[in-house]
Here is the input.
Amino acid sequence: MLEIDGSLGEGGGQILRTSVAMSAITGTPAKITNIRGNRPKPGLSAQHLTAITAAASLTGAEVEGLALRSTGIVFSPGEIKGGKYRMDIGTAGSISLLLQCLIPIALHAPETVVFDITGGTDVKWSPPIDYLRQVTLPALALLGCSVTITVLRRGYYPRGGGRVRVVVEPSRISGVDFERQGVGPVEGADADLDADAGVNVVYGRSYASGLPEHVAKRQRSAAVARLRDHGYA
Here is the structure.
């Protein structure tokens, strides 16, 4: 069993999400202590509870210590399986952070995985859902991973209530040796990156909740001006 101190480094939820995902993928039980030890409110929040519960459902795992504000868990995974999963964070907890834990696991399922998630799509201290759709997923696609995210309804702080549908197909990546020296192609991936290709186009999306329309337009104008200052016409 791996023992992981959740207070190391930035001591936040990322250690927990990554640890649970890697435990599920490798089939290795993990004991995680001092969860979010460097945060003002240590322990599991609603978003973390949802992530661990969903990961347990995906893998048939046994989990000890699963409770709100718990600072320690033991995650003992079984085999990853496909299927449809519905989850409600119950707050404006970040759907994006939840998916950081679940997508890597789902990619290793033998069948398609579909998530129907309710929570926050665009909240503080986490990537907005459009970052996952427009930045993370294209990067995963270069590695041979097929994931789609459909935003059915946006959810903001403090109410949440956003809804997202995620479809994850079994990954074609057959293995990665992290201990091998050097950098080379990943087996099963079809990435074709040209470091000298340059930037052809920059695009984005500006939106606001509970504010006048001109706020979103002002954000857009500021972003365009900053890009022009750096040579992007």
Summary: The chain has a mean pLDDT of 89. Residues 81-193 form a domain with the UDP-n-acetylglucosamine1-carboxyvinyl-transferase; Chain fold (CATH 3.65.10.20). The radius of gyration is 19 Å.
